[in-house]
Structure formats: structure tokens, C-alpha cells
From TrEMBL:
Localization: Cell membrane
Record's keyword terms, sorted: Cell membrane, Glycoprotein, Kinase, Leucine-rich repeat, Membrane, Receptor, Repeat, Serine/threonine-protein kinase, Signal, Transferase, Transmembrane, Transmembrane helix
Any Gene Ontology CC annotation: plasma membrane
Record Pfam families: LRR_1 (PF00560)
Keyword Transmembrane helix: yes
Transmembrane segments: 220-246
Gene3D superfamilies hit by this protein: Ribonuclease Inhibitor
EC number(s) per entry: 2.7.11.1
Organism: Handroanthus impetiginosus
Protein name, per record: Non-specific serine/threonine protein kinase
Signal peptide per UniProt: 1-19
Taxonomic lineage of the native organism: Eukaryota, Viridiplantae, Streptophyta, Embryophyta, Tracheophyta
Coiled coil (residue ranges): none
Family: Belongs to the RLP family.
Membrane disposition: Single-pass type I membrane protein
Amino acid sequence: MGFWGRLLAVALLILSAAADPNDEQCLTHLSESLEDPLNNLQNWTKATFANPCQGFTSFLQGATCNNGRIYKLSLPNLALKGTISPFLSNCTNLQALDLSSNQLSGPIPPDLQYLVNLAVLNLSSNRLSGPIPQQLALCAYLNVIDLHDNQLSGPIPQQLGLLVRLSVFDVSNNKLSGPIPSSLGNRSGNLPRFNASSYEGNKGLYGYPLPPMKSKGLSVLAIVGIGLGSGFVSLVLSFTAVCIWLRVTEKKLANDEGKISQLMPDY
Ligand SMILES: *[C@@H]1O[C@H](CO)[C@@H](O)[C@H](O)[C@H]1NC(C)=O
Ligand SMILES: *[C@@H]1O[C@H](CO)[C@@H](O)[C@H](O)[C@H]1NC(C)=O
Ligand SMILES: *[C@@H]1O[C@H](CO)[C@@H](O)[C@H](O)[C@H]1NC(C)=O
Ligand SMILES: *[C@@H]1O[C@H](CO)[C@@H](O)[C@H](O)[C@H]1NC(C)=O
Ligand SMILES: *[C@@H]1O[C@H](CO)[C@@H](O)[C@H](O)[C@H]1NC(C)=O
């Protein structure tokens, strides 16, 4: 074999070179944490996890390969249940993760922070709960964070405002609470801005760009009203109590006086 032949052989070997052990771990754990009741995930078997990619060809449904590594996982609308494995972070070349419109539950693993190439994260329309991990701010290339229609709770981490490439951010229809960090609600300079539609449908969330809560203004009035009302009622009650007490003691005094005067010898 000549020089070029050997070079070609080496190049082919590198290209087809098997399976990155990290991708294998990632896929193995992910398939263990997901439930696939409708058997939608074709080729999601141990054998394929050991060799999911050949160059740019993928043998796994929903996976896209780049240079022998998994770089996109797109599994929307497949009736998947179960949870998102933290070992997903072992797919270190992953640029896009779309698990939207399934029935996934449990938390968003903070381990996703190790996906340093991640640009698109779409976990919308699931049943995910727990907090939005502030560690997502470490995925510096994130363009898209779409988490709408889940059951996420707690505050929106202000650290996410550090993501300068963020152009889509949607956390509407969750159970988030607290103030919208101004690093996201009122972005400065020429950073893309997000309007109220990104935040609506979270009962406890407030601040710009959400409209000021009118019901909150009313309830403040209501609280003042209740306070004044109950103050008046307790005033009347205590006044009545004092009156009754005065009367009783007066009577008792009068009685006692009577008793005393009876005991007193007459002069
Ligand atoms: C499953 O794998 C076979 C070969 O291993 C491949 O021909 C087929 O296209 C794969 N199916 C999907 C959905 O990727
Ligand atoms: C794979 O991911 C898990 C969970 O984040 C982590 O503990 C482990 O260190 C990772 N493995 C490698 C080889 O990076
Ligand atoms: C996320 O996925 C949903 C449903 O699959 C889709 O409608 C939505 O447009 C996606 N979000 C983005 C920002 O592409
Ligand atoms: C938004 O930020 C600008 C300065 O960057 C400030 O002047 C403005 O008052 C802020 N708006 C709100 C609603 O917080
Ligand atoms: C809010 O932003 C979304 C997405 O960026 C856009 O589709 C929508 O038209 C905007 N709504 C308003 C009232 O500007």
C-alpha cells in the first residue's frame, strides 16, 4: 500500500471509528430513563448505542450525526414518558436537544451545563417540574430556551440573562414565581428582547414585561378593607366587653357594699 493508500485507510478508520464512549453512555442512560410506550424509538438498542453514527449518517431515529458524534437529538411528539437522564450531558457534542410535546416528568438536570455546545433547548409541552437550573447559564451558545407548558416552579434564574446569544426564551404556562429578572425582562443594548408572551401563564410571576396585576391592586384594597373592618369589629367587641365588665364589677361592688354595710354594726 502506498502512502496515499495508507493515509486514506487511516482517514476512513478515524471517520468510521467507532462510537464515542461518551455518546454511548449518554444514549444508554437516556434510553433507560425514557419510557417509549408506543415503541416509537426505532433502533434505540444497545447494539446501535455502541455505534450510532458513521460519519454523518445516523442509525438512531431522531439523532443527527456530525463527524461520528451525536450533534442533534430531535424526539418531539412521540408520546415519550419517564425522565431526562443527567447522563445526557455525556453527549458532549450536542448542539440541539428537542424533546418537546411528550409526557416527560421530573426535573431538568442541572448537568445539562456540561453541554457546552448546546444552542437549542426545547423541552416545551411536557410535565417537567422543579426549578429552572441556573447552571444553564454556563451553556454560553444557547440561542433558544423553550420551556413553555410544563410545571416548572421557583424563580427565573437571573443568571440566564448572561446568555447574550439568547434570541428565543419562552417559559410561559408553568408555575414560576417571583420577579422577572431585569436581565431577561428588560434587556439592554441590542440584545433581543422578550415580550409578555414569554412569561404569561405563571401565577406567581410578576414584573416587566408582564402587565401590572390589576387584581393585586384590588386585593390590596381588600386587605385594607378587611383590616379596617376587623379593627372596627374588635373595637366594638372590646368596648362591649369593657361595658359588661364595668357593669358586673359595679354590681359586685354594690353587692359587696351591701354585705359590708350588713356586717357593720349599727351605731
Ligand atoms: C436502523 O438501522 C438500520 C441499519 O443499522 C438502518 O438501515 C435504518 O435506516 C435505521 N433506522 C432509522 C430510523 O434510523
Ligand atoms: C457523564 O455524565 C454524568 C452525569 O452528568 C457525570 O457524572 C459523568 O462524569 C459523565 N461522564 C463523563 C465521562 O464525562
Ligand atoms: C419547540 O417545540 C414546539 C413543539 O414541538 C414547537 O411548536 C416550537 O416552535 C419549538 N420552539 C422553538 C423555539 O422552535
Ligand atoms: C428598562 O431599563 C432601562 C435602562 O436600561 C430603564 O430606563 C427602564 O426604566 C427599565 N424599564 C423597566 C420597566 O424596568
Ligand atoms: C411577542 O413575541 C413573540 C415571539 O417573539 C411574537 O411572535 C409576538 O408577535 C410578540 N407579541 C407582541 C404583542 O409583540
